[in-house]
Amino acid sequence: MQANAIHNATVVGAGLMGADIGVVLALAGIAVTLVDIDSNRLELAEARMRASLDALGEFELIAPEQADAAMTHVDGTLDRAAAVSQTDFVVESVPEYLALKQEVFAALDAEAPPAAILTSNTSSLSISALAAATRRPDRVVGSHFILPGTVLPLVEVVRGDGTSDDTMQATYDLWRRAGKQPVKVQQDIPGFIHNRLQHALSREAIALWASGVATAEEIDAVVVNGFGLRLARVGPLAQRDLGGMAMNVTIATTLYPSLSNLADAPQAMKDLLAQGAVGLEARRGFRDWGDADPRVTRREVERTLLADLLHRQRTEE
Ligand SMILES: NC(=O)c1ccc[n+]([C@@H]2O[C@H](COP(=O)([O-])OP(=O)(O)OC[C@H]3O[C@@H](n4cnc5c(N)ncnc54)[C@H](O)[C@@H]3O)[C@@H](O)[C@H]2O)c1
Question: Ligand 1, atom 4: nearest CA belongs to which residue?
Answer without folding.
Answer: 147
